[in-house]
Amino acid sequence: MPSWISSILLAAATTLFVGLFVNPRLEARKPRIEAKNNRKRVAYEARAEFSKRVLTILSACGRLQGSEVPESLAETRPALAERLEAERQRWLDQLDEATRYLVDNLELFTLGYATDRLRSIVGKFAVHARAVVISERPVEKQVERLTALTAPVHTLFFASRWHVADIGQSFKEFEQALAALDEDLPDEPSGAPELNTPQPTA
User: Fold this and answer.
1) pLDDT, tens digit, for every residue of 119-178?
2) In the chain, N or C: fewer CB atoms in 10 Å?
3) Gap between the Cα atoms of 18 and 25, Å rounded
4) Tell me, what DSSP letter sits at residue 183?
5) What is the pLDDT of residues 19-43, one digit of tens each?
6) What one-character-per-residue DSSP string does 49-112 give?
């Protein structure tokens, strides 16, 4: 048989084998590969959004710290004081938006992390950060509590993995920040109020 005929037959046999056996297997695996890639993409996007909100909270808290408008400025330069108050309100609005987004998309953010411990921290952080913002705490106290909650979270999730000591310390700092929230709760009443029970008439 001429060599060129053998080459043609070999090529045809190879094409037939690929068409009958290889391609069907690849097509069968394609949905699984696409699903896996989609999960990775969703997890990556969730981590990116979570990082964005954490940085927003830290940045807004940093701007609010020490930026109180003194009463003397309101008296001497009321227009400037009004503009500064408007800036502070804008930063407070950023905290409101960021914490609301965290709570409303909590399920999505937890998809970005593999361990139960990290997912638990994401959930606790989102819920408690939102609770601080909508609480009746003074602005300065809100900023203090949010900073204490957010700083260790930023280290835990976004610091370099080489900073093992910092990460271990951040776990403790986060738990301490959660415990400190109870210090702001109002004291419980010492006892139940007495009820005036009507006396039976003779």
Assistant:
1) 899 999 999 999 999 999 999 999 999 999 999 999 988 877 666 667 788 999 999 999
2) C
3) 10
4) G
5) 555 556 656 565 555 555 666 776 7
6) HHHHHHHHHHHHHHHHTT----HHHHHH-HHHHHHHHHHHHHHHHHHHHHHHHHHHTHHHHHTT
